[in-house]
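It is worth pausing here to work through a concrete case rather than discussing structure prediction in the abstract. The textbook approach is simple: state the sequence, then state the predicted structure, then interpret. We follow exactly that order.
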Amino acid sequence: MREDVLREMASRAVRDSDFLRQARQNLESTLVRHGYRLSGEEMRLVEGLRRRTAGMSDEQLARALSDGLAGRTPTPQARPAAPSWLGSGPSRPARPGD
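Step two, the predicted structure:
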């Protein structure tokens, strides 16, 4: 799932009331018109949020999205673990110099 794309969409909905209103009325065509191409999983997530927030006004939803964005920080990319020489055995090469 591309969190950066979802975060950008939420940010746009907060700053662009026309985008938010259009997305609430016709989500798929609005996203396509604005250049968003979501995976099936991303679309299900966004559609689920739309259904759960249907009773909110545009202002309430924009505030909730803004609050959610303020509380989130980008997820750092996972870094591979450093190699370890512990547990060297027949399936692992011996430590250099041993």
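Step three, interpretation. The helical segments are 3-15, 17-25, 27-33, 40-52, 58-70. The mean pLDDT is 81.
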